[in-house]
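Bug #77: duplicate submission created two jobs. Keeping one. Sequence:
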Amino acid sequence: MQKTMPSGAFRALRPIILASSSPRRRELLGSLGIDFAIKVVDGSEPAPTLEDDPAAYVMRAAQAKAEAVARAAAPETPDAVILGSDTIVVLHEEHGPIILGKPANRDEALAMLLHLSGRTHTVYTGCCIIGPSAHGEKWVELFYDAADVTFAEWPEDVLRAYAATGECDDKAGSYAKQGLGSFLVSEIKGQWSTIVGLPVLAVAQRLMAGGSIGVKKTASQ
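Kept job's structure:
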């Protein structure tokens, strides 16, 4: 289980485990200044179906990740607070929403990018926090945030060249706004951190309200 280097405005009041290996989520959670561990259970993320509501699905996926890690971590850290997160890209078509997950290959990545080019889509990031109660049971909190992203219209050869960089291989919607794919986006409505993979504001508020983090003491206190 990996550990982080704390720095920032907050401190952890309980053991916290991030149920994700994503470097972006690690950086975003680390920006709060809290100490936390990282643990992942492979294969815990459910696949979406055509009937899934995007918000409901992304929270279900986050809960599956968090619950898998909670079970795996229970013998060593039964008092830990587990944070799971999942991000999807959604195109709203006339016949209903289309959930775009991670591409299976470069051809599928290019197809996704062509579908997104010149259009507005919504990025949903769902979160699940699991923590211990005073009676020894677990409590679960589910929430999500959404942001609208508009792509500029790019020709196929540009999108093919971006897909060939490999950055899109493990990204929902086949792009990374914070990386080489920053040129794709012309407009954002919503929180940048939600698009990257973790709605930091909502996470910090809920961890603080639940007594899992507190304000870090300064030298003058």
